[in-house]
Design goal:
The structure holds two protein chains of two kinds. By secondary structure, chain A is mostly beta strands. Chain A has no helices and eleven strands. In chain A, the strands form two sheets. In chain A, strands 2, 4, 5, 6, 9, 10 and 11 form a seven-stranded mixed beta sheet that branches. A four-stranded antiparallel beta sheet of chain A has the order 1-3-8-7, with no helix packed on it. Chain A is globular, with a radius of gyration of 13 Å. By secondary structure, chain B is mostly beta strands. Chain B is globular and about 40 Å long.
Amino acid sequence: ETGVTQTPRHLVMGMTNKKSLKCEQHLGHNAMYWYKQSAKKPLELMFVYSLEERVENNSVPSRFSPECPNSSHLFLHLHTLQPEDSALYLCASSQDHGLAWGNEQFFGPGTRLTVL
Amino acid sequence: GEDVEQSLFLSVREGDSSVINCTYTDSSSTYLYWYKQEPGAGLQLLTYIFSNMDMKQDQRLTVLLNKKDKHLSLRIADTQTGDSAIYFCAAYGGSQGNLIFGKGTKLSVKP
């Protein structure tokens, strides 16, 4: 596997379910990100992890819970979601977090989440 | 904070040039990126420009930066059907230190 992978690619869940999204990067990067992509809205940055520590949480509801057990893996735990949470959830990684040249973000293919 | 704006749609004929425009608000933005998203896929970095550059060319892609007007454009020469995708402009810099994305421009290439 190369680059950034995400599983599952598609997920349908009820509002009372608990599920998790998984992201893995094979690039040796130190920073990982969760984004939410909804129709007709800009990409929304949800969480940022740098060296396994959360450095940013952009006012995301507590029904989304991130976990970064090591620098290669990032999870997004979901519980009691709402239909408006249906979106494409993208994971990305970069060498480091912050304003440094060569700090391009590399994205995974995303998980298409539908909440019924 | 930073705000990035793009037009939402562009339609061109195969073989023509496409020009996708973007404006940003934070004049201290130092790095500007173009990403491409094909259907069902994540974002793929296409090219980038540093704020002390006016132009960057990479094969069929030309990026122009007007720092005074905070205007960025992506020109695709000889546009092909395979270029049909959503193109995102992103500004990396300013006080937030994160990548701020526009809403994306959907490019449709007609044969």
